[in-house]
Amino acid sequence: MTSDGLVRWGIVGTANIARAQFLPALRQAGGAASAVAGRDAARAEKYARENGIDRAITGYQALIEDPGIDALYIPLPNSLHAEWTIRALQAGKPVLCEKPLCGRLADTERVLAAAMETGTLLWEAFVFPFHDQLRQVREMLEAGAIGEVAEIASNFHFPLSGQPNIRLSPQLDGGALLDVGCYPVRLAQELFGTGHESAWARWVIGPDGVDVDTWGVLGYPGGRRLMLSCGFRRSYDTFTRLEGTRGSIHLSNPFHPGPADTCRVLAAGAPPREVAASSGEPSFTAAIRHINGVILGELQPRLLAIQTSLETARALDDLARAAAAG
């Protein structure tokens, strides 16, 4: 810890998401951006200088072994998650690994086995379960605001621009389903509270060999279902509907809500109403605040990867197999 009791974070790699999402949230949540590691020393030093990070370190392993680091954020390409997360866990460093935890089910199983064997804390960077918006949605559902949720219809699309892009690399486990389709899958897991029973999907494979547009259905016990749509070819769209037996909840962005987003409740026999969609904080803030509290011994850990990630990985694998089978 720092002299003032802040958790010292290290960032494995010089990814854009760390600059855009992790670092602003870390500063809001409280914590020290102590080091960033890169394979290229000059690039790592430039990244550290431009983003207010204390030190640049050459090589990921050197950062993992650094005694001045308390926790690690791993925003590497999907295909590298397993190797570097396992190394960090074996070194006893708590990890926040970008989603999906791994690009392949077998790798996810290896990482979770390492987390259980070492006892080191591991979170997958789905941050929306920590948001106030999801807490409010849960409370409304538990109070019967729209009856029993029978169907979730959830989108995650954005136009992908710029070449090359790691999201389009088969070797790096890219593709729309893994990059953004994982969000609706995790949302359904959170709200249905159980694993899926069936999967159907179709996709469009782009010129680079990964899916660029995917749609599908996951079936859950009792006839409940997730209908998902994701891709890189449409304008930004995260609209999600929770359809219940006595109404619906419309969320403009359940995953990374901002000040302009809405959560609208349409219940039978009642006027429409809106609840706050965003606390105004950067999206990662609540998750980082929780992790800091756990590391400092102030909070009990929740939403650990060993509790949540295997079902997500199984659902993504089943959807990919269904889409590939045509």
How would you explain this protein's 3D organization?
- The chain has 9 helices and 14 strands.
- With 326 residues, the protein is α/β, with parallel strands linked by helices.
- The chain has 2 domains: 8-125 and 285-304, NAD(P)-binding Rossmann-like Domain (Rossmann fold, 3-Layer(aba) Sandwich), CATH 3.40.50; 128-281, Dihydrodipicolinate Reductase, domain 2 (2-Layer Sandwich), CATH 3.30.360.
- Strands 8-9-10-7-11-12-13-14 form an 8-stranded mixed beta sheet. The protein has a 6-stranded parallel beta sheet with strand order 3-2-1-4-5-6, sandwiched between helices.
- The mean pLDDT is 96.
List keywords for this structure.
326 residues, alpha/beta, Rossmann fold, Dihydrodipicolinate Reductase, domain 2, 2 domains, eight-stranded mixed beta sheet, six-stranded parallel beta sheet, 14 strands
Q: Which SSEs are present, and which pair or pack?
A:
Elements (H helix, E strand, L loop, with lengths): L7 E5 L3 H14 L2 E7 L2 H10 L4 E4 L1 H6 L5 E4 L6 H10 L4 E3 L7 H14 L3 E3 L7 H11 L6 E9 L18 H17 L5 E8 L5 E9 L5 E7 L8 E5 L2 E5 L11 E5 L5 E3 L9 H11 L9 H21 L1
Parallel strand pairs: 1-2, 1-4, 2-3, 4-5, 5-6, 7-10
Antiparallel strand pairs: 7-11, 8-9, 9-10, 11-12, 12-13, 13-14
Helix pairs in contact: 1-8, 4-5, 5-9, 7-9
**Major sheet: order of its strands?**
8-9-10-7-11-12-13-14
Rg over C-alpha atoms, rounded to the nearest angstrom: 20 Å
At the fold tier of CATH, the topology name of the largest domain is Dihydrodipicolinate Reductase, domain 2
Q: Just give the CATH class of the largest domain.
A: Alpha Beta
Distance between the termini: 52 Å
Which bin fits the share of residues in helices? 25-40%
**Shape descriptor:** globular
Q: Which superfamily, in CATH terms, is the homologous superfamily of the largest domain?
A: Dihydrodipicolinate Reductase, domain 2
Low-confidence stretches: none
Report the strand count: 14
